[in-house]
Amino acid sequence: MNFNLRGRQYAVAGTQAPLRRLHHELERRRAERNGKGVYVEVPGIDVPFHSAVLHHGVAGFRTKLDAILPDRIDPTLLVGRYIPNLVPRLFSLSRDFVVEVAEVAEAPALNSVIERWDDWSQRPEALCRVLLLELLAWQFASPVRWIETQDLVFALDSGIERFVEVGLESQPTISSLARQTLSGEPGRYAAVTVANLEADRAELFGEDTDPPFDELAEAADDGRERAGEAGAEEPPSPSAPTAPAGATSAASAAGAAVAPEDLAWTPADGLRFMLSWWTKVRIDQLADDDTIESLVDGASSRRNQLLMDIGKEFGLGAIDGAADAALSTLIDEVAARARTYRAPGPVLRPTIDEQLRRVTGPARSRPRAIDERIANHWGLGAGWTTVVAAAVAAGTRAGTSVRGGDLATLSPTEPASAEDLDGILDAAVTAVARASGVEVAPLVAPGGSDALDAATATALLDTIIGADGVLTEIGRVITRRTSDAPTGDSSFDLQETQRLHDIAAAVTRELGAGWQAAVAPAFDPARTLVIDDRWAGQREDLARLANSDPDPDRDRTDRERRFARLGRGLAPSAIGHARWHEREARRRGDVDLADRLARLVAESAATAVRTDDLSDDVALVTGASPGSIAAGIVAELLGRGATVIATASSLTSERIAFFRELYHDHAHHRASLWLAPANLASFSDVDRLVEWLGTDVDEATGGEPRIVKPALTPTLVFPFAAPAVRGDLSEVGPSAELEMRVLLWSVERLIAALAEPDSGRDPATRLHVVLPGSPNRGTFGGDGAYGEAKAALDALTTRQAHEPWGERVSIVHAIIGWVRGTGLMSGNDALVPLVETEGIGTWSAEEIARELVDLGDRDHRHASGGALTVDLSRGLWNSTIDLADLAAQARDLASAADIAAVEPAAPDSPVLIDALPHPPSAPAPTGIDWPALDLTPADTVVIVGFGEVGPLGSARTRFDVEVTDSLSAGAVAELAWMCGLIRWESTPTPGFYDVESGELVAEHLIAERYEQRLLDNSGVRFLDDDGAQVDGTAPLLASVFLERDLSFVVESEAQAEAFVAADPDRTSATPNADGTFTVTRSAGTEIRVPRRTVLPRRVAAQLPAGFDPSVYGIPSDMIEALDRVAVWNLVATVDAFVDAGIEPAELLSWVHPTEVANTQGTGIGGISAIRRMYVDSLLGDEAPND
User: Fold this and answer.
1) pLDDT tens, position by position, 980-999
2) pTM above threshold 0.70
3) What are the structural domains of the chain?
């Protein structure tokens, strides 16, 4: 039994039956008096301390104590000083005290003392020891009589003035009970000050003393003398600031303004600040009817920690019903009890100081600047400083409030300059004044007076000669560099700066403002990738063929496409699969499939090598894009087994998907496709690409190096990169320069670099280049520098025979004619029928690609004889057709066709709703052959609902993608709603609205508008940015060593000592005049500096981008407060109930809770909480408040 607080707190340990009776009786009495519940069970305590149950352990405990207590104990240490737990009386060696202890404790030793009192009374040290031994031995098995102990300590005649608990600041149990006792019955006890050793250390050890009055007076005199020497009038006192000229304050008419009274930080202010900070809401969002329970969403750990921190901050014990009390009631209760509150207290002080440090640091200032600004600029008192500092801390928090909007009310939250910081402080002063209902004005208003006030003069002097002043910093630089100052003039060269400006202006004038962006490098070895899994793709094709519909009228297109893929030859690892599927097809009766698979196996097993086989070649192709000639070349090369390196200006997910499909549709099983981002307008990209091609790339795996990219030496080059070309002769300028750079200069630079002897090439092999020539020498007109660039290729072929590089290169100059559907010619496709009537043939991209790859065979790689020019123009070269005339004819034909196409609409066209799908229907099954069960229904587990939160959204949307490789219209709508792209609105028109634009989206357009975006941002993909993880990188504290001394300022001696203690051999601290300390780390000291490190794995299965749990009805404050894993579990639970078609209450009304199960998975638990526990604490970031 613990008798802790009279009439308010008693702790009882017992068995279940009597405790139930106690609970029943207390509830009966509570009902009679209409009071609050007072019975609280404390879980987790399984030892009945301070009860008779433990009497059997006293003997063993006495033995342990007897072994460790000294043989002789000085009685003066205990007599009159020690109040034992067993009897609430001052320790004494009198017979009465011994008798009283013996009556409580069943101690034979004390009975012996009483019987032989005359003998024992002559031996006080021995008596003291035996008495103390029994008092301690019986303590844990006897009631705690703390109520009587406090009556003794706080009695009016006790003479005690201060009560200090020697205990933890975070758990001030004894001091809290003392405060409640003293405040419970005024007049019964003496006026005693209660303190906790940790919480009130500054007061107890005299560390909070103010400077002596004579020092303050001396400092004030010095300030007045400095102001007088500067020729200024005596500065106004804070209590009566001078009114600025033209000021708008009410007192300005009288010529002086009376400063507002000083403010006080009240317990109400502290409590509101703490609740808003701990629960991530703005102070203005707290309502009088809010409760702690509602603010923490019922989370017991957060509630208990918040209540503990409130007690610690205000020096209070437990407040009955505090968690459920309305905020207005709680404020009144705290204010009534916290009469000695010194603001801010031990909890809020470090919180506010840390936030102010984060705010002032980026501005190269310190929190002390807030005090100076409020005192010197505004002329306000110390109370204003406290309140404004708290307002700055609360108003610059990062993040969003759980009740909507940003937490920050001041901007910028990270001021970059002293001016920005002053702006924040001034805004905070104005806001505090407005909230307090007073008017404030600066001591010297802008534009008010031309005189320089003392504060401004002091600030100016600090800027010049202060700790961070200009002259001080110059002195530091000179001191650091005196011994090893470099020779020569290191002054700032204005002429050099002007020269650089002139160069930039000339580049812009001659090459255009976008030149730098146009030639910016794009090549990045980390962004390259290889596709070489055709062997696996063949297995998939075989499996899909075996499971396709044998009906020749269905799946015909897909079946033929897959057979075309496999017709290029099976990989050895796929032949066994094909034979197995052949046998299975014959067993099912699909003879056509079996025969075709048998022929495929026989052809693949043949040892003959194709005459056009290029499996020993490495081909570099530039300019491959959808629909281009280069893309056709890549497909043809892959089909012949070559290793192909394709470049693209950027490797987006769409472009990678295009190349992947191109590979699987056309590649031989020995072919591989390397993709590299490269801007062919950038010469540096050309050089880096060539360097990368000829270099092995390896990485360490398990401590062993592994080659991830072998050196690739191209034997074939198809330089087909081409920009968009436009403009006539009058528009020659920057765009023409860029076009020539891509079409000609980069081609020549690429060939020359690949032909270098040190490029990794075998001297016995030659580089074979197929140039993309053209008969267009201005024939089409308006195509920029295209004609000039193609004409220049003639010169390139001539140079081969006259320059050294030509000995290592063979060239075929292909004069390519009209190619339909490519990027350059698609705009002229309407003229194709008219051109062909003129006797000029045209090509498709596939046809011309086949011809061009044929030009790369070994017959064309001649060893001598110079470049070979091949006419593939089909009559376009040297033709005299007039394209302008043909274009006019095409327009006339198109107009006539449009008129003929106009027909009246059918009178009875059916009306269909676009958004509703029309799937094929099938007859319902006549019955289900359920298996027989040996179990009774009561013993059967029934799964009624399934909920999932995964990389593809819900189970329904995942099923769509896995089965059909696409999303149905319904799945798109669900996933778009889940990711916050659309929302349902009933007004003004019911329907789905785009969240970003707010416009109504027709239901039948939802799939078309969002499907690709959703597929790109869901499933397995490159890592999204998430917190500290940005662009595939994560922060790392790297080790560096200082090359010179590094100094910084801290606010207190304790902080300085902590820095010195971390590395005493290389760290020193010196005090500054303003009370701060300068800490210096010596050159050679190891420090940790954050840098970005590339993650070794950049692809993962992530939730869809933008996944929004709030659409499931989870409140935003709960989403903010809970760990994301917990939120995902809630969403999965909601989805499971939706899938089952029931609500929780409905389920529990029919099934007992003990018979309801779920299979939620939590992984390793709260990821965010684990990070905050182990990482944020190491970085000194804000710690969790629970």
Assistant:
1) 999 999 888 899 999 988 89
2) no
3) 2-153 (no CATH), 267-465 (no CATH), 499-525 (no CATH), 532-608 (no CATH), 615-697+706-826+843-878 (3.40.50.720), 948-1025+1103-1107 (no CATH), 1033-1094 (3.30.70.2490), 1111-1186 (no CATH)
